[in-house]
Amino acid sequence: MGVTLGHPPIPAVVYSAEAIATRVQQLGREISAHYRYKEVIALAVMNGAMLFAADLVRQLDVDVALDSITVRSYEQGTVSPGSVELLSRPTRTLSGKHVLLIEDIVDTGHTLNFLKAILWETGPATVSCVSLLNKPVRRQTEAYADFIGFDIDDVFVVGYGLDLDGRYRNLPYVGWLPSL
Ligand code: 5GP
Question: pTM for this structure?
């Protein structure tokens, strides 16, 4: 059954709002245990992770400051394979801090590798990543997220922050969008 919210229809809900909320709670507990007594800077990777980051940080029971980093990832073949552009840096000093990247999805892995390389240059104590979604079959690099919400197959999904040309981010669930 198709679901519409003023958008072209989404043929299938992959992760409902309820399933996401339950998993985000679990991730919050796992991540809080990992960072107990540490000073954490959570970096939402914009724009895709903004909804996930907003929900996840409210489940963290640690000393955490929220900041962001913005990148643009180019599709294969559009510029050069896996090229990523840094559009904005975090405003806080990361030196000596435990940095937690909050990502929407790790697909080929190029974006995560790019982000980790940039962040390590700032002298943090540690750099880790939590990603709502992980597509292991698409990986082209060694990149990995330390905490993962859901492993998914090679399907294109939108919603809960994930977009197609800026649209669909507002959907409260993650839905499958077949290629046109
Ligand atoms: P990478 O291939 O570098 O791991 O991921 C690059 C970016 O591709 C992600 O941050 C995300 O914006 C986008 N991406 C990858 N798979 C999907 C998907 O299934 N849906 C959407 N909306 N974006 C995706």
Answer: 0.94
Is 3.30.470.30 the CATH number for 16-171? no
What are the CB-based long-range contacts (under 8 Å, 24+) for 90-97?
90/41, 90/43, 91/67, 92/41, 92/65, 92/67, 93/122, 94/41, 94/119, 94/122, 94/123, 94/124, 95/122, 95/123, 95/124, 96/123, 96/124, 96/125, 97/39, 97/40, 97/41, 97/124, 97/125
C-beta of 73 in contact with ligand 1 (< 6 A): yes
Q: Answer yes or no: 107 catalytic.
A: yes
Q: Is 41 in the pocket of ligand 1 (CB under 6 A)?
A: no
pLDDT surpasses 70 at 40:
yes
Nearest-atom number in ligand 1 for the CA of 71 is 10
pLDDT of residue 39: 96
pLDDT one-digit tens code per residue, 75-119: 755 556 679 999 999 999 999 999 999 999 999 999 999 999 999
Q: Report whether residue 134 contacts ligand 1, using a CB cutoff of 6 Å.
A: no
Name the closest-CA residue to atom 9, ligand 1: 105
